[in-house]
Amino acid sequence: MEYNNLSISSGEILTEEELPIKYDLYSPISGTAKSFPVIIFLHGFKGFKDWGPFPDACEDIARQGFGVIAINFSHNGIGNGRTKYERLDLFQKSTLSKDLNEVGLVIRALQQGEINDSHSNLNTDLMGIVGHSRGGHTAVAAAAEYESIQCLVTWAAVSDYLARFSDQEIKDWEEKGFTEYKNSRTNQIMRVDRDWWDDTKENADRLIALKRVEELVIPSLFIHGRDDQDVAQSNSEKLEIACGSKEKELRLIAKAGHTFGASHPFEDEFFPPQFKELVDQTGAWFRQYLK
Question: Tell me: the pLDDT tens digits for 87-100?
């Protein structure tokens, strides 16, 4: 069943550092007492919840009978606006542990009613999670960490950040205490402190997706583009092979790169075909297993 009427609300909850985790909640409006499972959406590295067609994808999935909450991690660098990197000082101090902990804060806020929508009825006993790239890496760890999560989908997920860090990045961290990335879209130089490297090494058993995926017993779908030049499809292949669930699948989308044909800003009327296939497969997986 498709729900044409959606409620979209925005807000924030605070971390222990008193930093905001901003969110948008997309939920169907139903004239009945029906409740809707909740799906948490996680953006990737140098990403944000309002990137490209992400909001439209969340709406699309919500119309299929889910409450979808898209979040900005507190250290993703986006400031008070929605799409500009105004807090590179926070981006610099980002770590995988912070991201994983913040998923737990969002789950707790949902279950305690701190995140809700008066127009819809959310069933916080049924939760799924979907993440793109670094967000997919965190989604796997979160699915293993938090028993409330009962269904997983990843989009072009990194499998193992320890294996992904380059020799140059590690040398920068060890010698300078930071490394730098250029944002090709904004031309901003984005610095990341050594804390990211140290945290990932010291807490690998908790943070690394390829380790945590072995613990999963929930339905898990790994989607990747065959032409991904940023995160090779072998990342999702490894995750699917190592996944401990009996209900698991790997799906590869032809002629799809790391963002599945999408870009920012997104102003088209329709999704690129590869991105539409991605969203359709995601919605179908949650409809099948998150109920």
Answer: 999 999 999 999 99
Q: What is the percentage of the chain residues whose pLDDT exceeds 90?
A: 91
Place of tokens 């926070």: 90
Dist CA 262 CA 257 (whole Å) = 9
Could you tell me if 221 and 228 are in contact, meaning their C-beta atoms sit under 8 angstroms apart?
no
3-class DSSP state for residue 223? Answer: strand
Residue 254's CB is within 10 A of a number of other CB atoms, namely 10
Residue 264 DSSP label: S
Please report the domains of the chain, with CATH numbers, ordered by start residue: 6-161+205-289 (3.40.50.1820)
What is the Cα gyration radius of the chain?
A: 18
Q: For 108-122, 168-182, 184-198, 273-287, which range has the lowest pLDDT when averaged over its residues?
A: 108-122
Segment 55-58 long-range contacts (CB within 8 Å, at least 24 positions apart)? 55/24, 56/266, 56/271, 57/271, 57/275, 57/278, 57/279, 57/282, 58/24, 58/26
Question: pTM surpassing 0.90?
Answer: yes
**DSSP per residue over 37-70, as a string?**
EEEEEE--TT--TTSTTHHHHHHHHHTTT-EEEE
HSE-CB for 50 with a 13 A CA cutoff:
14
